[in-house]
Specification:
Largest sheet: 2 strands, antiparallel
Shape: globular
Strand content: under 5%
Number of helices: 14
Strand order of the largest sheet: 1-2
Helix content: 55-70%
Oligomer: single chain
Amino acid sequence: MDVKGPIIMEAIFIVIAVSIYLLTANTFFIFNFLYIGTAIAIGLFLMSQKKEYARNIIMLAVGSYLLIYVGICGHENLSMSGFWYYLFLGVFEAAVIHFLIAKIAGPFLFGRGWCGYACWTAMILDLLPYKTPRHERKNWGYVRYVLFIAILCFVSSLFIFKVNNLDLIMFYIFIAGNLIYYAVGICLAFKLEDNRAFCKYVCPITVFLKAFSYFSILRVTVEAEKCVECKKCIKACPMNVDMLDISRKRVNGTECILCMKCINGCKEDALKL
């Protein structure tokens, strides 16, 4: 990655900021997307300079901003429950815009980049000791779909039974849900010796991300003539993606979080984004 990457990323978020502002007439979204875009651009530049913790800096800058400033201080539920809540209200604000940009439309461009650069759950999990999985992947992916349906049914029931004070309830759900996510994520990481176990098996947001990431424009590919098939890239991947297969149907192909550990670890320079 050279300096073009950060510049392009900044430009993309400027376009997003202006577009959302024109749709909503809310100046907050100018600040919001310019901040996120600038944080990511600076982090990408640091990554291009081979700074070891550059991606962690991006995640802390973006993730803590969304969790603490927008979520806790701004009383906005940006989680899955908040998305269904605002969608059922018919309001094009908060979590609906967040999901549209980061988790529905965004993956067509940058796949599961949200998971690798902005997720406030993963920003903590990535600091744990097990940065590369030490065991074979489990067949527990169904858990995410169960949780996805459970959250949808729960929020639907609040509307069906006309529960009062929904704004306050959704805020408390945001706080409680994140605490539970952190607890489950940390426990799974230590139990399975895999920082990203929560992302692989539990996170309901991946139901959207996996589906749309299949068509992602940005993806890691391999130059077969350079590859010596040492498979160090596969061993280094926190999401167990088979980078040696250029097909979109490659093993765990929709799981790539664009962390670029595979690219940085390839001594033959056979992988590229």
